[in-house]
Amino acid sequence: MFAITADQIGSRRAADLADAQLAAIDALAAGRLVLPADRTAGDEIQAATEDARTALAIVLHLTRDGNWSVGLGIGDVRTPLPDATRAMTGSAFILARDAVTAAKKRPTRFALEIDDGRLPDGGILEPLIDLLLHLRARRTPEGWEVADRLVGGATQAQLAAELGITPQAVSLRVQNAQLHTETAAIAALVELLEAAGEPP
């Protein structure tokens, strides 16, 4: 199981973002969560999924705007499952709690903890995810505009027409945003996360 715990940064000085993020996570996961994403206490939220791609997508979503410290725990959960995510227990949730605490002290505001005996371990996976997060952190607003529209199904030709720029300019934005690198990195990381998700 992949458990994600996220804690809003500077919530005492800013509006509570938890409810909006819970709705966004449920929409992003599109039925691939074990139970709906949940608020645990105050401004902290949790989600759980058995799908590595969904877990990574949630991490990327939450770390994008810099408002959350995000911990990912990979381990077991206790069954039978309760009625709500906030009541779930098991090593995955303990590790996610440890990870979000560690994330608060890391430049990427992300940390990963994996149950003992699972491979690859956190020492291998965490720095690889960090590299992807650093790549995304350097992306310009123009790069994000292109990235979001392409993910939404637009073609580069459609983007050029909508933005009033040449196809070559769109291609340059795609290149500068390193979208092809990100796509390849996500595919590789999903495979590694899937392996780590398998019980030892």
Structural notes for this entry:
This protein has a 5-stranded mixed beta sheet with strand order 2-3-1-4-5. Helices cover 50% and strands 14% of the residues. Helix 4 packs antiparallel against helix 8 and helix 5 crosses helix 7. With 200 residues, the protein is α+β, with helices and mostly antiparallel strands. The two termini are 13 Å apart. Strand 4 (68-74), helix 3 (91-103) and strand 5 form a beta-alpha-beta unit.
Summarize the structure.
It contains 8 helices and 5 strands; from the N terminus they run βαββαβαβααααα. The chain has helices at 18-29, 52-63, 91-103, 122-137, 141-151, 156-163, 167-176, 179-197; strands spanning 2-8, 38-41, 44-49, 68-74, 110-114.
Mean pLDDT: 96
Spell the H/E element sequence.
EHEEHEHEHHHHH
Enumerate the spans where pLDDT stays under 50 for 5 or more consecutive residues: none
Structural category = alpha+beta
Our count of helices gives 8
Q: Give the biggest sheet.
A: 5 strands, mixed
- DSSP helix fraction: 40-55%
Cα-to-Cα separation, first versus last residue: 13 Å
Strand content: 5-15%
Tell how many strands the DSSP assignment holds.
5
Structural shape: globular
Whole-number radius of gyration?
A: 17 Å
- How do the strands line up in the largest sheet? 2-3-1-4-5
Task: Tag the structure with descriptive keywords.
200 residues, alpha+beta, 5-stranded mixed sheet, 8 helices, 5 strands, 50% helix, 14% strand
Topology overview:
Elements: E1 2-8, H1 18-29, E2 38-41, E3 44-49, H2 52-63, E4 68-74, H3 91-103, E5 110-114, H4 122-137, H5 141-151, H6 156-163, H7 167-176, H8 179-197
Parallel strand pairs: 4-5
Antiparallel strand pairs: 1-3, 1-4, 2-3
Helix pairs in contact: 1-2, 4-8, 5-7, 6-7
